[in-house]
Design goal:
It contains five helices and eight strands, in the order ββααβββαβαββα. It has an eight-stranded mixed beta sheet, sandwiched between helices. Helices cover about 30% and strands about 30% of the residues. Pfam families: Acetyltransf_3.
């Protein structure tokens, strides 16, 4: 596998490869904020977490890596994120399926999670590019992706059929290897100015 299925550890967050033992903690985390109610988001309902985790574990056989996001300050599972659309021969992957409990929004959790994920791809896996996809109408997610330093590549119109039958226009962003040093500096500044 191009990306190793291993834990990534920072000052504020630990990313643990997702296992079924994380289900009950993720069910509690997803209740905090009820983001599954957002029509444009792909956040699972509490009752769907077990299937969500099982599917993520199954996709690991194709090279994807899904993580439980642990807040090290409280040793609590506060969400999940993953590498997907992994293309080892072309040294590309997407980062997504990311959601957090409302209680950790505007905390260092997302910034450090992305720093760990991107550092692993660009520095350990020698990635050429990393992609981020989100619903065109998910302005919160788009703003967060742009704050990382990712650039908008374009909009894939009528890209996916949503659970409610509506068509999703997907905003596609990326960070390429030559941009990584500046993006890393930006993320480290954002993260460590909090201390």
């Amino acid at each position: 596998m191009w990306i190793k299925n291993q834990a990534l550890d920072g000052k504020y967050v630990r990313l643990e490869p997702l296992v079924m033992q994380h289900v009950s903690a993720l069910q509690e985390a997803v209740k905090d904020g009820e983001y599954w109610r957002l029509w444009y988001a792909s956040v699972p309902k509490p009752d769907d977490i077990s299937d969500y985790v099982a599917k993520a574990i199954e996709q690991a056989k194709q090279g994807e890596v899904a993580y439980a996001v642990i807040d090290k300050r409280t040793d609590t599972v506060v969400g999940t994120t993953r590498y997907y659309n992994v293309d080892g021969p072309n040294k590309r992957a997407a980062i997504g399926y990311t959601w957090y409990a409302n209680s950790v929004r505007r905390s260092p959790i997302n910034t450090e999670s992305k720093l760990l994920l991107l550092s692993n791809l660009f520095e350990s896996c020698d990635a050429v590019a990393v992609e981020f996809n989100t619903h065109f109408f998910n302005q919160t997610s788009r703003a967060a992706i742009e704050r990382l330093g990712a650039k908008l590549d374009g909009i894939l119109r009528a890209h996916k059929i949503m659970k409610d039958g509506s068509l999703r226009d997907t905003a596609v962003y990326s960070i390429i290897a030559s941009e990584w040093p500046a993006v890393r500096n930006n993320l480290e500044f954002k993260l460590y100015e909090r201390t």
